[in-house]
Design goal:
The complex is a heterodimer of chains A (338) and B (284). With 338 residues, chain A is mainly α. Chain A has 16 helices and no strands. Chain A has a single domain (55-298), classed as ABC transporter involved in vitamin B12 uptake, BtuC (Orthogonal Bundle), CATH 1.10.3470.10. In chain A, helix 4 (58-84) packs parallel to helix 9 (181-204) and helix 5 packs antiparallel against helix 6. Chain B has 284 residues and is mainly alpha-helical.
Chain lengths: 338, 284
């Protein structure tokens, strides 16, 4: 069997799905569903692209800009963690490395902006190769703790290397992505669309099917002769590249970078977005990133009680639905269609 | 050198108190409790409120703080962890969100200004030619006593046998008539109480702020990973090792670098010897 066929079998059996019988009717129904999905995605994107026309002020637009960035980051987290079951609690390592690289190259060396953002992606991939690849041997909480520690070490280094990084204060005087809020927003929206579309296509490919099979049963994959390591490394580097470029954009959008981009809180923020939106779907994670950013910002009028209410809303959701929100809803929809 | 020796001993005892509860929780429920440092913070803030605001005697306030943390621990285990125990990832998320929620509740009441917690004593004494604050001596004595009590509880009592049985095989323990959920709750109460007690003891020499839960959490991670997750003797040995390394690094390279020690320990132990120093060789 080809890798993809093996993977399909493993992913299917472990998910407890009954063996699929190919019938013309089922195929037509699936094709219809897929077309509806693409149409919905296109409508949402067009809807988001006209937001600047309705935004009342620059603040609203900046919130949507952030939402697009977080959506891309959550999708980037999902491609590794949601698909292979390696929950990355140090995702901030990749975002932070990208953000600091872009910020340093811009504010200290005055390199052109596109070069800085490309370098941000590269630096993040390098960080993933150095710290992430060895950690991939670990599973479950062990992988989570190793990645968390790696990001924590970098957070400390931003303080220790304060003459270069600015210490607690971080780096200011970063060139804005664009002087126009609308252009900044549309650019991040395009970035988000490219990330979501790219990662979605990748995970729907035969390659992505192997990732899903790894999550279902890594032992079965290895027993079938699949080299799981190369697939996991591929997913990790893709995840890091997304995070690095997103981090670089984040630096130019915020016009400031501080140690917080390496913090556990940052990683956890992104993880919660992917978790609530739906792990292992890419678009679900992205939707979670977008909506939770908007929710978080809309609570801002509550001042000090904002984060309190935010986590108080999330906690019951997690307990009631430990698989996230999207997966149970999809199951329910499929059940109804039968 | 002597100051490193004495300070390291006090820190070892406090770290052991923190890590013991963390490792017990992992052993019994395979739960990585990201809210472990939160109990430490709860202990400190409850003690502060009772002693500095309501003017309760320090000893009574400290005891009440430990009990309060234990009660929160039982609530956390029953309401948040038990329903999602089967999903390791959901446990991580639920406990970290609980930790952030508690941080925000503390912040809403007290703000970010740091608080001063009174010491049990202001006297000092001299050990090995080093002047030691009486508070540190008391801390050491109480911590060693607490560890001894837990050791006896786990290895010499019927309850301890139940804990070890659940740790070895939860399902088999249930078939033998052991109330595994009850054991998990009691162990969580114990773990929370130990962490809160550690907090109350070291609070007078610490910066007390709503985010104070992260540092003890990272140190607990480092210790249990170095000692082998779930291994009690391993945790005790690793506590001593980490505390002395940190104290020495802080003394000779500065405190900016001593905070790096636990993180480096976590990363490199996991990458080089994932089962830890004394942990069983199981697939990580």
């Amino acid at each position: 069997m080809k890798p993809a066929e093996t993977a399909t079998a493993i992913a299917g059996v472990s998910a407890g799905a009954p063996h699929r019988t190919a019938s013309a009717g089922a195929d037509r129904q699936n094709a219809g569903q897929r077309a509806a999905g693409w149409a919905a995605g296109a409508v949402i994107l067009v809807g988001l692209s006209v937001v600047p026309a309705f935004a009342r002020n620059g603040y609203t637009l900046s919130v949507f800009t952030q939402a697009a960035l977080y959506a891309a980051m959550a999708a980037g987290w999902d491609v590794l963690s949601g698909y292979t079951g390696r929950e990355n609690f140090g995702y901030a390592l990749f975002v932070g490395t990208g953000a600091y690289t872009a910020a340093l190259l811009d504010a200290r060396l005055h390199l052109p902006l596109p070069a800085g953002i490309a370098a941000a992606g590269g630096a993040s991939v390098l960080a993933a190769a150095l710290a992430g690849v060895p950690a991939l041997r670990l599973r479950g909480p062990y992988f989570a703790l190793a990645t968390l520690a790696a990001a924590g070490i970098m957070e400390r280094f931003t303080l220790i290397l304060w003459p270069v990084t600015g210490g607690e204060d971080g780096i200011y005087e970063i060139t804005p992505l664009s002087l126009s809020g609308t252009v900044t927003y549309e650019a991040t929206l395009v970035f988000m669309a490219v990330v979501v579309l790219g990662l979605y296509t990748a995970t729907r490919s035969p390659w992505g099917m192997v990732l899903r099979a790894i999550r279902a049963s890594e032992t079965a994959c290895e027993a079938s002769g699949l080299n799981t390591t190369t697939y996991k490394i591929g997913a990790l580097l893709l995840s890091a590249l997304t995070a690095g470029v997103a981090g670089g954009l984040y630096a130019h959008v915020q016009e400031h970078v501080g140690p917080a981009v390496y913090s556990v809180e940052f990683s956890v923020t992104v993880i919660i977005m992917a978790f609530v939106g739906g792990v292992g779907t890419i678009w679900g994670a992205a939707a979670g990133g977008f909506l939770l950013t908007l929710l978080g910002e809309s609570l801002r009028s509550l001042g000090p009680y904002r984060l309190l209410l935010y986590s108080a809303i999330l906690l019951p959701v997690i307990i009631a639905s430990p698989r996230g929100i999207v997966a149970p809803v999809l199951d329910w929809l499929k059940e109804r269609q039968r | 050198m002597a100051d490193v020796l004495v300070l390291g001993a006090v820190n070892s005892a406090v770290y052991a108190m923190l890590a013991l509860g963390f490792t017990l929780i992992f052993g019994v429920g395979r739960v990585v409790n990201l809210a472990h440092g939160t109990f430490y913070a709860i202990g400190v803030y409850v003690a502060y409120t009772l002693v500095a605001v309501t003017r309760l005697p320090l000893l009574a306030g400290a005891a009440a703080a430990v009990l309060a943390a234990a009660a929160v621990g039982i609530g956390l285990e029953r309401l948040l962890i038990q329903p999602v125990r089967r999903w390791t990832f959901a446990v991580l998320i639920a406990t970290v969100v609980f930790a952030l929620l508690t941080q925000e509740i503390i912040y809403a009441f007290y703000g970010y200004t740091s608080r001063n917690i009174p010491s049990f004593t202001t006297q000092t004494l001299s050990i090995l030619g080093v002047t030691v604050a009486g508070q540190r001596a008391i801390t050491f004595a109480v911590a060693v006593l607490a560890i001894a009590v837990v050791w006896i509880l786990i290895y010499r009592t019927r309850f301890g046998s139940a804990v070890l049985a659940v740790a070895q095989d939860r399902e088999a323990a249930v078939y033998l008539g052991i109330d595994a959920d009850g054991v998990s709750r009691t162990v969580m109460a114990l773990s929370a109480g130990l962490a809160a007690a550690a907090g109350v003891l070291v609070a007078p020499v610490l910066v007390v702020s709503p985010q104070m839960w992260t540092l003890p959490l990272v140190k607990s991670f480092a210790i249990v990973i170095l000692g082998g997750l779930g291994s009690i003797p391993g945790s005790l040995a690793a506590s001593v090792l980490l505390a002395y390394t940190e104290t020495a690094v802080s003394r000779f390279a500065g405190s900016a670098f001593s905070d790096l020690v636990p993180l480096v320990v976590i990363l490199f132990t996991l990458l080089l010897r994932p089962s830890g120093l004394l942990g069983q060789t199981v697939e990580p």
